[in-house]
Amino acid sequence: MANRFYAGLVVLGLIVLVAWNSIFIVNEKEQAIVLRFGEIQRVVDQPGLYFKLPFGFAGADNIQVLPDRLLRFDLDDIRVQVSGGRFYEVDAFLVYNINDAARFRQAVSGSIPLAEQRLRTRLDAALRRVYGLRGFEAALSNERGEMMRQVRDELRTDAESLGLELTDVRIRRTDLTAEVSEQTYERMRAERLAEAERLRARGQVAAREIRARADREVSETVAAAQRESEIQRGQGDAQANATFAAAYGRDPGFFDFYRSMSAYRQALENTGTTMVLTPDSEFFRYFSSGAVANGAPSVEGAQPSIPAPGPAAAAQPPAPAAPPSGEAQNAAPALPATPGTSVAQDGAPQPGETTGAVAQ
């Protein structure tokens, strides 16, 4: 009884082992190649549970599982030469999938690294060919898309020979090499400096033009103002001279007296000046007792208050100057009047009145 039980367990174990080696599962991301004694029997590309001959280690059916999805292969730092002769560094990648598992198995024994190694060589050659026909600026312009399509079309035939379907090719980076980058930087720096000098020169020219216009406007304005001031001053001097001439014509004696009083004030008032003159000096003729000049009134009992002259007179002041300007006329003070004498506001004596002045 016990021997039957153990024999049943052995048979059951063999059945489980055979069943386990006779089935395989394919999921939605995979595809499988069934190999019998190294030859391809069939390709399973649909997910599910499948059967095969057991005991693959004895040369029966073996299963090679391959991905059934898009794969990406990157190629970095490819040194390419453009039409101008300079070298640049390019990073690119391609996207592919295994669309013919049997051919893929025959071409590269189902090895993805080996397939990518072949794609690397062909992608490098295609990029060099495409860049060699164009300049560096093409990769930065609208031609970039056309360049990627051209590389993809050149690789598509080679990819199909490996059982691969090439979906897309993209250029991630196109950069300058170290020496080209330095040369480009120096050239751009020189261009910017030249542009700055041109802008600075234009600014200086514009500044000079603006400054010249402003100086011309200032000169014209100042000249016009000076011309107008000279005209006004000339008109004022003419009017003042006319007024003086009219006053002199009305009463020459009083006009002479008024001029002498103005000269006394300018010469003696608050100046601290000491004058040494003879008692009979012409300058103080209106301070002499009973002196009458040109019909002008005399000042009774007035004596000049000057130091006594020495053996010889030290200086003789000049005769009274010409009629003062309009400002001096207006600034002349009113003369003090003695009892019984009045002076008009404009300095002329009223008719029928006696005029006199005493020097202080």
Please give the structural blueprint.
Blueprint lengths: L1 H21 E4 L3 E7 L2 E6 L3 E4 L9 E7 L3 E11 L5 E12 L2 H8 L3 H21 L10 H19 L2 E13 L1 H73 L1 H17 L57 H6 L29
Antiparallel strand pairs: 1-4, 2-3, 2-5, 6-7, 7-8
The H-level CATH homologous superfamily of the largest domain, spelled out, is Band 7 domain
Query: Which strands sit side by side, in order, in the main sheet?
Result: 3-2-5
| Residues in β-strands, percent | 15-25%
Indicate the CATH class of the largest domain.
Alpha Beta
* Alpha-beta content class: alpha+beta
Give the second-level CATH assignment, the architecture of the largest domain.
Answer: 2-Layer Sandwich
pLDDT under 50 segments (min length 5)?
Answer: 289-360
Helix share of residues?
40-55%
The average pLDDT value, as a whole number, equals 74
Helical region count? Answer: 7
Named CATH topology of the largest domain: Tetrahydropterin Synthase, Chain A
General shape: rod-shaped
SSE string, helix = H, strand = E? HEEEEEEEHHHEHHH
Main beta sheet: strand number and arrangement? 3 strands, antiparallel
Describe what this molecule looks like in 3D.
- The protein has 360 residues and is α+β, with helices and mostly antiparallel strands.
- It has helices at residues 2-22, 101-108, 112-132, 143-161, 178-250, 252-268, 326-331, and strands at residues 23-26, 30-36, 39-44, 48-51, 61-67, 71-81, 87-98, 164-176.
- Mean pLDDT is 74; it is low at 289-360.
